[in-house]
Amino acid sequence: MPYELVPVFPHTPEVDAIHPFGKIPAMRHGDLTLCESRAILYYIDHAFPGAELMPRDPIGGAQVEQWISLHNTAIDPLLLRQYGVGYIFPGTPDGSPNRTMIEAALPNMPAHFAVLDGAVEKTGYLVGNSMTLADINMLPLIYYMTKFPESGEMLGRSVNLEDLVRPDDAAQDRGRHNPAADARTNLKHPLNRHPRA
After folding, report:
1. 93 pLDDT band (50/70/90 cuts)?
2. CA 184/CA 78 separation, integer angstroms
3. CA–CA dist 191, 185 (Å, integer)
4. In this structure, are residues 18 and 34 in contact, taking their beta carbons and an 8 Å threshold?
């Protein structure tokens, strides 16, 4: 699906015109404007040809919704909103990492990585045998976790989960496919534009 990425910050006129609270992501397709990842992904999945990102069978669809909910209610609040924000928006006088926020999150993080690692162990995906909205929803968060020291180290110990985000051939070397490569080549996922250093 061809698209144009417009790099803008939250609360800019371009974003405010689409999102009532000035947040990203936001999209425009013809006369349609949408905000919030879930709504955008739903539209893309239903409006364009290609592999179904949300299984139409009730079990697969419910499992995808379950992972999206787990991401939104438990995984993202800890890994990004607490731990990641301690690095990205530390709120410290000198802009250095907020060690109080980071240290408070660290004890709970291994369990989150273990759950995710176990979930992708069998097929390399969170649900079923192909990429779904559950994986697409989770990939950016896990990718960003590769950028911080403690989470990067934890991710390095989560072999199955690491396969989900590595842009190299490590997964294939272990006889597995690489969902991150699928995302970059088949879905034009943002991981394609932000390779790991």
Report:
1. very high
2. 26
3. 10
4. yes
Closest CA to 137 of 168, 158, 167, 116: 116
Q: Do 174 and 160 meet the contact criterion of CB atoms below 8 Å apart?
A: no
More confident: 27 or 51: 27
Q: State how far the Cα of 172 lies from the Cα of 25, in Å rounded to an integer.
A: 32
In the block, tokens 């950016």 appear at 140
At 152-187, the pLDDT tens digits run: 999 989 888 876 666 454 445 545 555 545 444 443
Helix (H, G, I), strand (E, B) or coil at 100: helix
Q: The tokens of 102 are what? A: 């980071």
Place of tokens 């990102």: 53
- For 186, the token pair is 């088949």
Note the pTM of the prediction, 2 decimals: 0.77
Instruction: Give the count of beta carbons closer than 10 Å to the beta carbon of residue 133.
Output: 24
Angle formed at CA 183 by CA 177 and CA 185, multiple of 5 degrees: 90
Q: Is the peptide bond before 25 cis (omega within 30 degrees of 0)?
A: yes
In tens, the pLDDT along 114-158 reads 999 999 999 999 999 989 999 999 999 999 999 999 999 999 898
Nearest one of 197, 181, 83 to 139, comparing CA atoms: 181
Q: Are strands 26-29 and 32-35 parallel, antiparallel or unpaired?
A: antiparallel
Q: How many CA atoms lie within 13 A of 17 on its CB side?
A: 9
